[in-house]
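Entry 14. Structure prediction run on the chain below.
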Amino acid sequence: MVKNPFISIIFQEKREENCGSVEFQVFRFTNKIRRLTSHLELHRKDYLSQRGLRKILEKRQRLLSYLSKKNRVRYKELISQLNIRESKNR
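Output returned:
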């Protein structure tokens, strides 16, 4: 299902762990975000998808800020694995 082999390996590792963990939720949101951004490159005027993308981005940002407050090491590892930028707000 996932085209990137590195992400599929992470997905299999995370699936064996707790599916409700913060890392797994951030991983799922990141996959949704990437899928929606590729969709919006083709359909620029799909405003409902843009709204959904903003909601998912906000949810992921809240989870990442929670994780950075609770466990900075796990936060740094997750950021590097998913290849996303660190938030400016702390």
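The two ends are 34 Å apart (CA to CA).
Filed with the rest of this week's runs.
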